[in-house]
Inverse folding.
């Protein structure tokens, strides 16, 4: 009973997330003509100061649209890459809006640099990410996951975690795998967090209770 209730709540949350994403996407599409008008105004500017002011407004508006796009990706994928990229663009836009002196620019630059450091070192650290949110690289071996993280997942179906998920999908009769696909096998739930060019990159493993 409790398991079914949790599944229904997850479906409801997913539905609300999709509605929010569709609303944001619809607003972004309606805003594209405004961006075009900004661009035309920049071209038609009569002097340097006017051109500078209009270009500044154009960049602010363009970055706002980009933030909206990244927000959609973050909501749908919930990946750390998407979250950090969203923060990166928010910082860049804030720098355009509120940077009035050298200190503001310095703080903004340091913040952007910190984001890049996190993306390069933290997000790519499989051991750290596994401890933070139970996500694992699809290339990680099942044997390593069993030994290092004490997860009793089947080892006889595939050598790698990604291969294991593909095999479980075959058992479940699922022909196409995509991001956010959920699979249940034994006492564990597998969720595909990210894919690239049709290849699974990261997978979340959660024990069913």
């Amino acid at each position: 009973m409790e398991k079914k209730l949790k599944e229904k709540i997850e479906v409801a949350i997913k539905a609300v997330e999709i509605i929010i994403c569709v609303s944001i996407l619809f607003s972004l599409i309606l805003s594209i003509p405004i961006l075009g008008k900004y661009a035309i105004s920049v071209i038609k500017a009569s002097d340097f100061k006017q051109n500078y002011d209009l270009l500044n407004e154009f960049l602010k508006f363009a970055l706002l649209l980009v933030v909206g796009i990244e927000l959609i990706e973050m909501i749908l994928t919930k990946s750390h890459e998407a979250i950090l990229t969203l923060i990166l663009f928010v910082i860049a836009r804030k720098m355009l809006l509120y940077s009035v002196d050298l200190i503001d620019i310095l703080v903004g630059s340091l913040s952007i640099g910190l984001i890049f450091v996190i993306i390069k070192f933290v997000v790519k650290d499989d051991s750290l990410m596994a401890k933070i949110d139970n996500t694992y690289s699809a290339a990680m071996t099942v044997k390593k996951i069993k030994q290092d993280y004490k997860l009793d997942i089947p080892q006889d179906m595939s050598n790698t975690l990604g291969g294991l998920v593909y095999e479980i999908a075959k058992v479940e009769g699922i022909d196409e795998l995509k991001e956010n696909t959920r699979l249940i096998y034994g006492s564990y739930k597998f969720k595909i967090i990210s894919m690239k060019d049709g290849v699974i990159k990261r997978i979340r493993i959660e024990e069913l209770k």
